[in-house]
Structures are given as structure tokens and as C-alpha cells.
């Protein structure tokens, strides 16, 4: 992903470029990622994917939300799940209620159909984190999680998980073991090579199928977008 030279202040409120401007060059890059992901699984079923990073603030949550939108814009029925039950952000991004969500489903307080919400993007449903539990790793690796994914697969074409950073906690590794693929986000001029390599190794230990790496926040080269500008 490229960035504008003037960066905005860090905030919980995200402006999703793929929703606000479906014809922008950045949106086209998300569509390219979507296409590459689909090509990466020509011989296999790719219904569940997690997006993670080696560390915090590398752009994984924005990448996950924008990918979910471009999949929905393609006509897919998409469920975006906030599986970061330590620092959830999905409810901020889409300005939704978080009193019920993934954690509620996993502890049996509600069911997926009750906790998932429609978004203002056609075809995209959202499942926020819900109340933050004391034991996220145990919940993500539970039989209840497998059952919920199985139920979601019956209703959705694509299920995307936003997960915590790999080097911080084991949550992404646990989910990688039950997802069809994983995508790692690295931020230009921030992510250390050693950290990215270590994160990849940990995902492989979790039996992840690493589908690719998204380079985020690369400085924009205007000439590159000459043919795509307004």
C-alpha cells in the first residue's frame, strides 16, 4: 500500500478508502491483492483468512477492513471478524456497538446470527470483538471457535479475521491452524527484517499457509499512477 506524503494523526477512527473512493489508485491496489489471493488458492478452498503483522501499528486492521470491502464489492458475501480480543478496533472503524460480538458467541451468550451486524457495504457483515475476555487464546482455540467458523462457512463466501500481532501473543498462530490462509502486513520503514522473519517462522509453526505479504505505507510515486489519476 502507498501513503500520501502528509500522514494523518493516529486515531481509532479509520477512513476506508475502498468505501469512500472505489476508483482511487489505492483501492485498485487492494483489488490487486484480492486477485492475487484468489490466484494463490486456485486448487484449494479459500474461505477463511487471517490478517496479521509482526508488531503493532503496521496497518493490519486497515488492510483487513479494506480487503473485506473489496471482496464484498466483487459480489462475495463476506464476514469480517475482529479476533483481536486484546485491542479490538473494528467497532471504531465501522462505528458500531461492541457490547455483543465474538467473545459473546464463544462463551455461549449469543449465536453468530444474533451478534453479526450488517454494514453499509452491500454483502459485508461484521462481528466485533464483544466484551474483552480474560482468556482470548483459550477462546480462539476452543471447540466453540471451530463450530462458529463451520457455521459461518455455511453463510459466507469469505471470512476474514483481524488478529493481534504475531510476536506479541499466540492468538494469530492459534487461528492460523484453523484458517485456510494467512496474510502478513509489514509497514515500510518501520517493520524490522528480523521481526518479519520471526513472525513468518511462528506462523509456519502454527501450520499457517502464508498466502503473501502486504507492504503497507510505501511512499507514493506519482508517475506510477499517471494512467489512473483523475
TrEMBL record:
AAA domain location: 59-184
GO MF assignments: kinase activity
EC category: transferase
Keyword Zinc: no
Source organism, top-level taxon: Bacteria
Alphabetic keyword roster: ATP-binding, Kinase, Nucleotide-binding, Transferase, Tyrosine-protein kinase
Keyword Oxidoreductase annotated: no
Any matching Pfam family: AAA_31
Catalytic activity from the UniProt record: L-tyrosyl-[protein] + ATP = O-phospho-L-tyrosyl-[protein] + ADP + H(+)
Enzyme Commission code: 2.7.10.2
Family indicated by similarity: Belongs to the CpsD/CapB family.
Family matches, as NCBIfam families: eps_fam (TIGR01007)
Protein name from the UniProt record: non-specific protein-tyrosine kinase
The organism of origin for this protein: Gracilibacillus caseinilyticus
